[in-house]
């Protein structure tokens, strides 16, 4: 009796048994250079040491050097309305999601 040749492995079978290599996550979804051009209005409140907002009355945080992911998330939450602040909501809704990512990338690159 002659032995039949083993069936050839298909690409799908080979890839199913090969270890998966996940693509490295992007370190930045935003472009800091574009964000620098867009963030000029942010400096009016967040760039002034000791600045207090008129309404509601509270200390405005310095945001330079914060985590890019945190800043992007916060801006998106203002845009969606899940974070409540009328001025920040107005600012965030005036930009696209990509522009908010660019602003977050720039602000994260600024030294506090």
TrEMBL record:
InterPro entries: Cyt_c-like_dom, Cyt_c-like_dom_sf, Cytochrome_c_Oxidase_Subunit. Pfam families: Cytochrom_C. Keywords: Electron transport, Heme, Iron, Metal-binding, Transport. PANTHER family: CBB3-TYPE CYTOCHROME C OXIDASE SUBUNIT FIXP, CYTOCHROME C4. It comes from Aquilutibacter rugosus. The keyword Iron applies. Residues 1-28 have a biased composition (Low complexity). Residues 1-31 are annotated as: Disordered. Residues 30-111 form the Cytochrome c domain. This is Cytochrome c.
